[in-house]
Amino acid sequence: MTVVGTFGLSVRDQALEADVQAGLAAVEEGLLDATKSEVPFITEAAQHLVRAGGKRFRPLLVMLAAQFGDPYAPGVVPSAVVVELTHLATLYHDDVMDEADVRRGVDSANTRWGNSVAVLTGDFLFSRASHMLADLGPEAVRIQAEAFERLVTGQILETAGPRDGRDPVDHYLDVLSGKTGSLIAVAVRFGAMMSGADERVVEILAQYGERLGVAFQLADDVLDIASDSHESGKTPGTDLREGIPTLPVLRLRERAEQLGLPEDRALCELLDSDLTDDSRHAEALARLRVHPALEQARRDTVRYAEEARATLAPLPECDAKASLQELCDAVVHRAG
Q1: Gap between the Cα atoms of 189 and 184, Å rounded
Q2: What pLDDT digit, counting tens, does each position of 63-108 carry?
């Protein structure tokens, strides 16, 4: 049994292990190659997060999904590079929007070079992803374009907030389906599609990826509150400081409205105050970490992960399917 990646995914089949490891190594080379520029400064900025590492969750999903067809098909590795480049580009932009100081345990690009360079570097990565995508065919271009539209729409809806009368939790889960679920669904779709898997298998895996993506982001929401910077690779409570209502906060507000408990209302008032103040921010984090709302957010994470696992039921039993099921457990484990 071999552990693959930071998720602790156990690969019991030696052939599958070899395929996954070789595929991820090829993706890493592809990422470095795709982020090179004739301008040394652009190369440095574009490779900043590539060299900082990361889970490579999306490429891993591409490699596992490709096992349902021909994992050695020529489009598999390039499609994984495309998905990861797109993801990395969104991180550059997200850090500007969130004014984040740390990403993957290193200074964020906006902290190191300023917002303008960070935004333009993200754009550079998008352009390189698009260039590679063109070689994968018009269907791949269409799938990526639709997912990117959903990703951007989700980000805009998060910024705009729920419309009047819309349940904030439902709104937020829809936001996550767009922001995170859409690209993870593309990862498994590309892996299966590029390998020549049956269309029914491609669709099942895409549904799995969408649900797993939501669970993945919900686990991040929990980590943003519950972990320290060593565990998460970024400053704890970043979303909290910026007033971004992640699921633990939404569950707190829901509970405060339903039960009207003074301690819940007091914590909501603290969250509505100026959390750029370090002492208030620390107090808010400490109180949320022991609040039932955090445990509710963990249960929500488990629910989505279980739904992702259930989606895989029609697929034939194989080591790749078992590994995809195990990823559901790994996402839940991240949330504690």
Answers
A1: 9
A2: 999 999 999 999 999 999 999 999 999 988 877 776 666 777 687 7
- Structural Rg of the chain based on CA atoms: 20
Handedness of CA 152, 158, 160, 161 (dihedral sign): positive
Q: Which amino acid is at 38?
A: E
DSSP conformational letter for 7: T
Prediction pTM value: 0.88
CB 279 within 8 A of CB 315: no
> What six digits make up the tokens of 220?
């991040």
- 3-38 pLDDT, tens digit each: 455 455 555 578 899 999 999 999 999 999 999 999
156 backbone dihedrals φ, ψ, rounded to 5°: -65, -45
Q: What is the C-alpha end-to-end distance of the chain, expressed in Å?
A: 23
What would the pLDDT profile of 305-330 be if each residue is shown by its tens digit?
999 999 999 999 999 999 999 999 99
* Mean predicted confidence (pLDDT) in 244-251: 92
Token pair in block for residue 282: 């620390």
Distances (CA, A) of 11 to 7, 113, 197, 328: 12, 40, 21, 14
Measured distance CA(193)–CA(203) in Å, rounded:
9
Beta bridge partners of 155: none
Angstrom distance (rounded) from CA 182 to CA 329: 20
Could you say which DSSP state residue 177 is in?
A: I
Q: Which residues have C-beta within 8 Å of that of residue 90, sequence separation ≥ 6?
A: 122, 151, 183
In angstroms, the CA 333 to CA 9 distance is 11
Residue 190 near residue 146, CB atoms below 8 Å? no
